User: Fold this.
Amino acid sequence: MIALATIGSFGVGGILTLGAVAAWPGMLPPVTFAAHIGFALLLLALVARLPETLPRSLAARQAGWLRLPAFPRGSWATTAAIIPGWGATGIVLTSVQSVLAQQGHALLGPLAACGMMLAGVLVQQAFRRMRPRPAVRLGLAVLMLGSGLCFWGAAWGGGLWPLLLGGAVVGIGTYAFVYPGGLAAVAEAASGEDRARAVAGYFVVAHLGFSAVPLAVGLAVDALGAGMALALAWAGLLAGAIGIGVASARSG
Assistant:
């Protein structure tokens, strides 16, 4: 439900904003910005009324301002899988957008990104009972197919439909399989109070993939051109996915 709420809201909000931009191109900022601020204020008032759920005794033991993340033994492969997962989604959100804007298709990139998120969270609901490690391995395979289609459509002349379809498949691979599978594997490997630290460690790795991979690809686009940069990105994602998939299979 957390992924459905967060990633789903990204996709729905983006689609609504694209619709507002298409309907009222001269309105800056789009009407959805004011609606977002109003909705956020409403939620703030509602959240302020929620009761504290953490027992006082546990809160007292966790009073320190800094608690380091943890990485449970046996979960490194499923945790590392989020690097190509969120790395690929980050590329769709950054370099693919830039390439399409330079080609005169400023709205196609955001459309592909929103479709990526919505497709992922919708398919996630159908496979939420899948075991974590098989889910991660399946997600990596789906991710490679989707990123290849998306990059081909964006920079190698594949056209609109491979781009949009590939974006949706990237979302399915990441948000329906790799992300929830890796998160569930971490939660299973930890117990008690260490579970929160383990989840924090998972997100540290996730945001490393979400930041470092798109940054490297963006610099490569500037230096080598979009076609070569995205080809190298796909090759790197493939190598990482194969290595992580093999390690995950060997560890259970």
